[in-house]
Amino acid sequence: MKLRTFNLWIRQVALTPVMRVCTPQLFFLAALWRKLLFRTTFIAITGSVGKTTTKELLADILASRGRTYRSRGNQNNGRAVPLNVLRVRPWHRFAVLEVGIAEPGQMVRSARVIRPDVAIILTILRTHAKTFKDFDLYAADKAVLLKWMAPGGLAVLNADDIRVAAMSASAETRVRFTGSSPDFHLWIDQVYGRWPERLRFRAHCGEEVYEIQTQLVGCHWAAMLAAALAAARELGVPLADAAAVLRNSKPYTARLEPVVLPHGPIVIRDDYKTTTAGFEASLLVLREAEANRKVLVISNIADGIPHKRWMRQMAEEVSGWVGLLVLIGEDHMYARRRAIEAGMAPDNVHAFGSLKEAADFLRRELRSGDVTLLKGRTTDHIARLYFAQLGTVNCWREHCPKTMLCDSCWELGFHPDSAQNSELVSLRNWR
Question: pTM for this one?
Answer without folding.
Answer: 0.90
